[in-house]
Amino acid sequence: MLDKPADELVMEDGHVVGVRSGGETAKCKMVVCDPSYVPERVKKAGQVARCICLMNHPVPNTKDSASCQIIIPQHQVGRHSDIYVCAVSASHQVAAKGWFVAMVSTTVETDKPEAELKVGLDLLGPVEEKFYSVADLYEPTDDGRESRIFVSKVFDATTHFETTCLDVLDIYKRSMGEDFDFSKVRHTLEEQE
To answer: Which residue spans adopt a coiled-coil conformation according to this UniProt entry (predicted)?
Structure first.
């Protein structure tokens, strides 16, 4: 049932047993989803401000690096949240040759979210185009063990995916009842046989 809307989570005795799309229902033992599928099972936990920037040069003072990750510590700029800067280039197959894409993000703390990104934006040098956005942050209101509906958090301000990876590991533990065992991960075709 790829590329179909999820119209309803089918419940029996307090836990999910299927997902309905139009006249079809896919049976299941659990659902793992993001908050947009179950707005009644999440609560707003804040907001994140982001600015995606298009540049025709690398980030200054990075020795012309094709990519970089900069974290501006909260205390350095008198905030409660860090400011994150991430830049990538054509060498990552995300921009045309000679172009760079940078993202500056932080957790919103004031009624002027664009201004909260200024310290990070100032590190980029001249920017050809900027795209600002503010998005709500949601987190699940329960752990999903009873309903068998395991809801992720949404992407926060971090640009290095640490919190997202921790969320995935947490969902795995809640849904499977045990920690993910990284020692079982196979890295080569020979290991998989």
So the answer is: none
Domains of the chain: 45-137 (3.30.519.10)
Cβ atoms of 84 and 160 within 8 Å: the answer is yes
In order, the DSSP letters of 160-192 are S-HHHHHHHHHHHHHHHSS---GGG---SHHHH
Question: C-alpha dihedral over 88, 93, 97, 102, to 10 degrees?
Answer: -20
The alpha carbon of 87 is separated from its chain's Cα centroid by a whole number of angstroms, namely: 16
Question: Are the CB atoms for 113 and 49 separated by under 8 Å?
Answer: yes
| Rounded mean pLDDT for each run of 10 residues along the chain, 193 residues in total | 89 97 95 96 97 98 96 97 97 95 98 98 98 97 97 93 94 96 84 64
Give the predicted TM-score (pTM) of the model.
0.85
DSSP state of 63: T
